[in-house]
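Work Package 3 (structural annotation) set out to generate three-dimensional models for the target panel prioritized at the project kickoff. During this period the team completed the workflow that converts sequence records into discrete structure tokens, so that structures can be stored uniformly alongside our sequence database. As a representative example, we reproduce one entry of 358 residues exactly as it appears in the project archive.
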Amino acid sequence: MIAQLIKSASSSARLDVPDLLVPRMLFFLVVTGLLLGLFGWALSIEMTWHHFIYTSLFALWVVLVFSIALHFLRPFFARTPIFYSVICVFLVGIAATAGVHILMNMVFSNEPSPEYLLPRRLAIVILCIGAYLRYTVLRQRLIRQEESELHSKIQALQSRIRPHFLFNSMNIIASLIPSDPETAEQVVEDLSELFRASLQEEGSFVRLEDELDLCQRYVRIEGLRLGERLVMNWAISEAKELAKIPLLLIQPLLENAIYHGVQPIPEGGTIDFTLEYIGEEMLVTISNPVPQFDSIYGSDDHMARNDSKSVGKSNNLAIANIRTRLEVLYGPKAQLTTSLQGNTFLTKLRCPKVPLAQ
């Protein structure tokens, strides 16, 4: 059994034992102890309520001692090869069973246990620990597989740069080199920073000011392409403390506002970017115009235009991707909502203001 456990956990060098002293797990352990007591009572010759209570107390104490021992051994398991961790878990279970058995014999000395009872109890405990370790290892493999898939998904979302943006940027650089080489050099620097950010490790957190710098670099490049058609208003509140957010979380929202909002409008439009702090949360609001001939956005608002569904698939996909990143990194603590108010599309991003370690 031990060899099978080691083989099944070969993808991990350490044994990740869950904390058994949390309320949910304690309730499960109490129920397990009672079931073990019922099982032991069913195997006994004298099936009386007295024996049931005695057996249940024994099972509950073994489970409790075993759980407390594993709780304090978790740091040891985190730095020990899994083979020795599995052996240690079995030894803890055997020691807890033998110790509680001896202690209860001392307390209930008027009713000594039969000699065969301890080996039977040890056999049952070993089987239960084997099943528990099997479940723990399979759970650990499943969690790591899900984490790997999520990291791959985040990497794909983070590294996405629209091909048309790259081609447009290269055309801007080529057109500026003869007439304005300094501006062309600035575009090259801005473009290289955007690509460098997209190649960083998935799920990376950066300073908020660094993310805003990427946003401004992106808007600066698009401003050279769209000219006076793009008007950008920035309203950024100063934070009392430094903060960090996931890399390339805000920039894709601005990209959508420009690509789906301002660019299709012949006369262009204005994008309003607002960043403010509400308690321990950060709120980013982006508003941009919507083309009059058709709405290319989907919306959370049921009163939004119905004709946006067929045209706004790419934007809806981008919004869905960002929501996926927020769900992976923050869970329910972050929220991204969109709404269409007349000819203005509003995007609101709310997420925790994570303090940046000094």
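The longest strand covers residues 269-278.
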